[in-house]
Amino acid sequence: MRKTYVLAALIAGVAWLERNALADGWNMPVGVTEVSRHVHGLHMTIFWICVVIGAVVFGVMFYSLFRYRRSKGAQAANFHEHTTVEIFWTAVPLLILVAMAIPATATLRDMYDASEADLDVMVTGHQWRWHYDYVGEDVNYFSNLATPREQIDGTQAKDANYLLEVDQPLVLPVDRKVRLLMTSSDVIHSWWVPDLAVKKDAIPGFVNEAWTRIDEPGIYRGQCAELCGKDHGFMPVVVHAMPQEEFDAWLAERKEEAAAAASGVDRNWTLPELMERGEQVYGTICASCHQAEGQGLPPTFPALVGNQALLDDLERHIDTVVNGVAGTPMPAFSGTLNAVDIAAVITYERNAWGNETGDIIQPSTIQAQLSP
Amino acid sequence: MAPKHPPKARLEHSENVAGGAAADVHEAHHPSGPLRWLLTTNHKEIGTLYLVFSLTMFLIGGVMALVVRLELFQPGLQLVRPEFFNQMTTMHGLIMVFGAVMPGFVGLANWMVPLQIGAPDMALPRLNNFSFWLLPVAFLLLLSTLLMPGGGPNFGWTFYAPLSTTYSPPSTTFFILSLHMAGISSILGAINIIATILNLRAPGMRLMDMTLFVWTWLITAFLLIAVMPVLAGVITMMLLDINFGTSFFNAAGGGDPVLFQHLFWFFGHPEVYIMILPAFGIISVIVPTFARKPLFGYASMVYATASIAILSFLVWAHHMFSVGLPLIAELFFMYTTMLIAVPTGVKVFNWITTLFRGSITFETPMLFALAFIVLFTIGGFSGLMLAIAPADFQYHDTYFVVAHFHYVLVPGAVFSIMAAVYYWLPKWTGHYPDERIGRWHFWLSVIGVNLLFFPMHFAGLAGMPRRIPDYALQFADFNMASSIGGFLFGLSQLLFVWVVIKCIRGGVPAPAKAWDGATDLEWSVPSPAPLHTFETPPDLRRVAS
């Protein structure tokens, strides 16, 4: 009779675990790629192996604790070794591990085969945003956190995708093998989207490879997984997967926009035009370190307000933004911002928050420095 | 596999040679005055200093963890800014690893290794004093960085370059210096323990007669000597990168940020076993006492400990599966890591077989030891899952990892230290710890620790990265549960402090052999143990025949 109860409780427990362990939001997502499904399968296999071993081991343990209580008059036996048993419980786990290692090896080999990709995207980690560059397509852009500051500080209700929203997602075609080339311009970041089962570190000085082939159109969200400084929690990854035709149309549109931006280099820009554009660039790119009002976060991130070393020396200011400052967190923006954006943001920094130099920096001046 | 002569047999003999009587001569010039604790070379007093230091650091590091849990109670930034949040997670990790767990085990070794091998003191008493007093200096320096411009270390306890070099706050140089001091302390302590165990064992005590606690500490001490210099090397390279313009880890100068991780984890993985092997020893001593039955598989326990120690040098890159290692390296480290499950499993099976057909009672030390077995094993299971490299890509740097290592370190290492304190307090103070408060402490800790760490498995699997001060809404429930558990666990530790103080002040007097199932040598000296014991070593030579 008691055995029936125990069995029923066990079945109920496993059923509960099965339902909840597979429930959305409690477990690793199955994901939308063949690799992610294999990874999920490995995860569930090793999980159930652990559950079974745990049930046996803890079963024997609690049986012993219950059965051999001194308060129930248990007399201690005196045995302290048994070679056969000891060999048995060394060998059996070894066999289980070998059985587990075989499918794990196969999946890993598959994950490492990034050859014959249909599309290459260079993914560069920056403090604290991602930069995507479609290799050979002249399309590249930053992807910044789009959750408003007010939601983080609690003065505004939080959206459903709080902290997982960006201004421009990474757009990828479905059913194509996409190779992701990861690197970083500053510290180590890690690009992770759970639904793709891709997590790879973006390391300065290295180019790492990963690949994915997404089965279903949709929006897939992830985050930077490697501690990368104060805003590590605020650099999400969003992937928008769409059918090939839609992707081609999107790419063509982006190319046109890039061409239009390039044509703006040659004309003369007015101060209000540059200030407007500069404020926007400053807000998305510079403010996370130098702060919204240019006050900085000394000693690591210097103030820009009243920074005479820069305000008195335009050449140095331009050099700092274009080439970065070696040995400090200040990155070079020559590869990631275009001449218009750089000219605008320098103009803005020299004329905002009481910095009244009146300097107007034209994009053509910057362009000359970018392509000497 | 098994020894011809189980260590059990020696107790009856050791009781005849109780060292306490011979020690009375020294009671006359018991050191006193304010400099007593500063200048002491006595292993028991230094052991006490280590334990008090460890408890202090445990409480300070705990308060930092509570700051973290308070910020994570709800989504959004409420209490602290991200800059300070990162300092709290970093300092919490550094203080718990280097300030609480390691000195806790060293304190237990100081007290108990000489008593368990029949030695009058540690082999190098003045070095012992120096090893201890380096620690308060090191940690005062480390804590003072929080007040420096730019704040304290904010790059995680693993301090990956270049975040910890080019991008670090100016106080990093002080952090390096304090870690150097803590490292020297550990190396000197380890040398002392090896010298003591290899040279000062009572006549007739063979290596295979030693308690598992002494065995695991001997192996741990070798691990310390092997890897602390590697840590010293890597932080010196950081020091040079920061202050002298070298580029060991700076890619722009031709350096290699991944080299940092290889060096760090070549130290770091043995380091995590440094924090668990002595725990295995403690559990292997406590379980037989309260099961009133000899430890099952003594020899296989020793071999398993040695195997784990050797394997610990061959698995470091499983912390680095996502850095882009070549496939062959990835496979090698996956296989070696899975292999660790075998000797670890042997240990768990041995403990459970020791319980089987015993005569079991459930005093507080036993409760903590049993909780250790269950909860450490859960941490072991998640460790096995993490070993599967393809799945690790999904687990790595998420709360699943945070859950894993806290399961092996808190209800693992920390519970073992608490079990040891409850177990040996009668020997140290001459009084039994209050059983009623002890049980309250135990049950609140067990409930708190599981409420704190179990939901982290789900948060991690669902996609929450570690070391973030704010999180997406789907992780809110898990985090709220964890924070409540954190405060329950944290506040219950005040009961522990209470039990210890109460026990020092008085309580039910304990006889020399405080636990009726205890068999080791320390139970042959009076309780409380006099300042000097085993001045004339107990003669165990008759036992061997």
From TrEMBL, chain A:
Q: How does the record classify its membrane topology?
A: Multi-pass membrane protein
Where, subcellularly, is it found?
Answer: Cell membrane; Membrane
User: What keywords are annotated for this sequence in UniProt?
Assistant: Copper, Electron transport, Heme, Iron, Membrane, Metal-binding, Respiratory chain, Translocase, Transmembrane, Transmembrane helix, Transport
What's the Enzyme Commission number for this chain? 7.1.1.9
Q: Which reaction does it catalyse?
A: 4 Fe(II)-[cytochrome c] + O2 + 8 H(+)(in) = 4 Fe(III)-[cytochrome c] + 2 H2O + 4 H(+)(out)
Annotated GO biological process: ATP synthesis coupled electron transport
The record's remark on the cofactor is:
Binds a copper A center.
What GO molecular function terms would the record report?
A: copper ion binding; cytochrome-c oxidase activity; heme binding; oxidoreductase activity
Q: Cite the InterPro entries for this sequence.
A: CcO_II (IPR045187), CcO_II-like_C (IPR002429), Copper_CuA (IPR001505), Cupredoxin (IPR008972), Cyt_c-like_dom (IPR009056), Cyt_c-like_dom_sf (IPR036909), Cyt_c_oxidase_su2 (IPR014222), Cyt_c_oxidase_su2_TM_dom (IPR011759)
Chief localisation class: membrane
| Domain Cytochrome c, first and last residues per copy | 273-353
- Residue ranges annotated for the Cytochrome oxidase subunit II copper A binding domain, each copy included: 116-253
Q: Does the entry feature the keyword Phosphoprotein, yes or no?
A: no
Q: Which residues form the Cytochrome oxidase subunit II transmembrane region profile domain?
A: 20-115
Q: Cellular component per GO? A: plasma membrane
Q: Where are the transmembrane segments?
A: 45-66, 87-106
Cofactor or coenzyme needed:
Cu cation
According to the UniProt record, what class of enzyme is this? translocase
PROSITE patterns in UniProt: COX2 (PS00078), COX2_CUA (PS50857), COX2_TM (PS50999), CYTC (PS51007)
Similarity-based family: Belongs to the cytochrome c oxidase subunit 2 family.
Q: What is the protein name given in its UniProt record?
A: Cytochrome c oxidase subunit 2
Which species does this protein come from? Modicisalibacter xianhensis
Automatic annotation (TrEMBL), chain B:
PANTHER family, per database record: CYTOCHROME C OXIDASE SUBUNIT 1
Which InterPro entries does the record match to this protein? Cyt_c_oxase-like_su1_dom, Cyt_c_oxase-like_su1_sf, Cyt_C_Oxase_1, Cyt_c_Oxase_su1_BS, Cyt_c_oxase_su1_dom, Cyt_c_oxidase_su1_bac
Q: Which family does it belong to?
A: Belongs to the heme-copper respiratory oxidase family.
Q: What residues form the membrane-spanning segments?
A: 49-70, 90-111, 132-152, 172-200, 212-240, 272-291, 298-317, 323-346, 367-389, 401-425, 437-458, 478-501
- PROSITE patterns reported in the protein's UniProt record: COX1, COX1_CUB
* Reaction it catalyzes: 4 Fe(II)-[cytochrome c] + O2 + 8 H(+)(in) = 4 Fe(III)-[cytochrome c] + 2 H2O + 4 H(+)(out)
Q: What is this protein called?
A: Cytochrome c oxidase subunit 1
Q: Which GO terms describe its molecular function?
A: cytochrome-c oxidase activity; heme binding; metal ion binding
Q: What is its main location?
A: membrane
Tell me how this protein sits in the membrane.
Answer: Multi-pass membrane protein
Which residues does UniProt call coiled coil? none
Q: What is its EC number?
A: 7.1.1.9
GO CC annotation: plasma membrane; respiratory chain complex IV
Show the SUPFAM superfamilies listed in the entry.
Cytochrome c oxidase subunit I-like
Functional description taken from the UniProt entry: Cytochrome c oxidase is the component of the respiratory chain that catalyzes the reduction of oxygen to water. Subunits 1-3 form the functional core of the enzyme complex. CO I is the catalytic subunit of the enzyme. Electrons originating in cytochrome c are transferred via the copper A center of subunit 2 and heme A of subunit 1 to the bimetallic center formed by heme A3 and copper B.
| Keyword tRNA-binding on entry | no
Q: Where in the cell is it found?
A: Cell membrane; Membrane
Give the record's pathway. Energy metabolism; oxidative phosphorylation
Does the UniProt entry include the keyword Cell membrane? Answer: yes
Q: Which biological process, per GO, is one annotated for this protein?
A: respiratory electron transport chain
Keyword vocabulary terms for this entry? Cell membrane, Copper, Electron transport, Heme, Iron, Membrane, Metal-binding, Respiratory chain, Translocase, Transmembrane, Transmembrane helix, Transport
Q: Which Pfam families match?
A: COX1
Residues forming the Cytochrome oxidase subunit I profile domain are 37-541
